[in-house]
Amino acid sequence: MRAPRLRLPVLALILVSFAATISAQDLASFEKRTSMRKLANGLTVIITERRDAPVFSYATFINAGSAQETPGITGLAHMFEHMAFKGSDRLGTNDWTAEQAALKRVEEAYSAYDAARRAETGRDEKKVAELEKAWKDAIAAADKFVVNNEFSTIIDRAGGVGMNAFTSSDVTGYFFSLPSNRFELWAFVESERFRQPVFREFYKERDVVTEERRMRTESSPVGRLIEEFLGTAFIAHPYGFATVGWPSDLSSFSAQDADEFFKKYYVPSNMVIAIVGDVNPAEAWPVIDKYFGRLPKSPQPEPLAVVEPPQRGERVVTLRETAQPIYIEGYHRPSALHADSATYDVIAMLLSSGRTSRLYKLLVRDKKIAAQAQGFNGFPGEKYPNLFAVLAVPTPGHTNDESAEAIHAELERLKNEDVPADELASVKARVKAGLIRRLDSNSGLATQLASYQTLFGDWRELFREVDAIDKVTAADIRRVANATFTANNRTVGRIERADAAPKGGAK
User: Fold this and answer.
1) Are residues 68 and 204 part of one domain?
2) In the 8-state DSSP scheme, what is residue 280?
3) In this structure, are 322 and 269 located in the same domain?
4) Which of 79, 87, 308, 349 has the smallest C-beta neighbourhood within 10 Å, fewest atoms?
5) Quick one: 333 and 432 in the same domain?
6) Residue-wise pLDDT tens for the chain (507 aa)?
7) Residue at 27 is within a domain
């Protein structure tokens, strides 16, 4: 939040004063306008009334992301996000009975082809080609029953906007907005894709995801670096997996694998829906019960058992390319559920929020050794212990080593010097202002409510987080910095020019 006509200390005081009231006053206000129910099947639904305009937004969060994958099916959470727009046995087909039989033949043909092509001994190339052709012929036969894009067409015709979805390491989310008089249509369509999704055009969409991986990871220097960096930082936990999936998995997992993933994780007790806008709860709850109550009750998936072991020494991965040099380093930190999470948020803002941040002032403004420098935490997710990371992009004529030296100097300052009171107040104000801005729009608020309910089990934590930030002290920052920013806890990723001499024996 910037106000050029106000000096920063004045702006900080205003924001602190405003934010100090949000957790108590606004929480009470939101509680009056918010109702939450857990349906008989375990689905949690939150409704917040905002009658400013005759529209509403929603967010559906599934408490499963790439962290729920295992080797062999990486990328499947993201793949299911794509498939959730393909419809059901009622949407997207012109003859479900015939299509169902055709899709079964597709899976049988794929299973035979996949077994043949994976054979380690006695592989018959002619037989593999024949089986591949039979599989593709089965796909073509099944495609005759597909009504393309029926799901999105229905929403578009009803005046829907912002239809999209995302997959992260922690969750998968779906969202769009509609006129409030289309509420029952929304309830039908949204519940349909979770009642009985049909994995039609699965292998075509798998090719789309494979191409997405090529564009965003394999053809992107930053994408390649991040993938190598995370794989180096996490040696046991699935946070080390690429959310988009490994190439071998993308070329092998099946619609049957997707169905098993769906049945395990897309269960009502593992889902949260938040609705914000011109919605009357008294009228909405019967509609929600009617449609979402159809989802069958299933056991809650077991929690993730893998725990990343403590890191015992610095790890370094270097990519030698013709691309722009880039430097990133990360430090293991606890999950967002930890008591020190707010302290990490304040440290991140202190280091990298705008032109007054420490990294920007030192690396970009004063030394001019980097075109970009920033810190961020909760990477690549925050449900489990994750990374606090710092990234820098050197300017021409300067090196990653110079960026690293300057970054370490700033981290040492955090460890050895108390943050001045006025700087800490300013940073807290900016953190709080960011939290407040999330509530501006219906869609933003729906996303935040669903996110906090999924992660913390209580949407009210969205407001309590403001209190937690306000309680962070200079001593907290020094304590957390000393516990976190150590060489043994550090993973470094670099892109170095291919024509530059190797430094320090890094490989």
Assistant:
1) yes
2) -
3) no
4) 308
5) yes
6) 333 333 333 333 333 333 444 444 478 888 999 999 999 999 999 999 999 999 999 999 999 999 999 999 999 999 999 999 999 999 999 999 999 999 999 999 999 999 999 998 888 999 999 999 999 999 999 999 999 999 999 999 999 999 999 999 999 999 999 999 999 999 999 999 999 999 999 999 999 999 999 999 999 999 999 999 999 999 999 999 999 999 999 999 999 999 999 999 999 999 999 999 999 999 999 999 999 999 999 999 999 999 999 999 999 999 999 989 999 999 999 999 999 999 999 999 999 877 889 999 999 999 999 999 998 889 999 999 999 999 999 999 999 999 999 999 999 999 999 999 999 998 888 877 877 777 889 999 999 999 999 999 999 999 888 889 999 999 999 999 999 999 999 999 999 998 765 554 444
7) no
Q: How many residues does the chain have?
A: 507
Q: State whether 75 and 223 are in the same domain.
A: yes
Please say whether the beta carbons of 360 and 296 come within 8 A.
no
CATH number of domain containing 477: 3.30.830.10
With beta carbons less than 8 A apart as the criterion, state whether 318 and 506 touch.
yes
Strand 315-321 vs strand 490-497: parallel, antiparallel, or unpaired?
parallel
- The boundaries of the domain holding residue 400 are 315-497
Is residue 257 within 8 Å of residue 68, measured between CB atoms? no
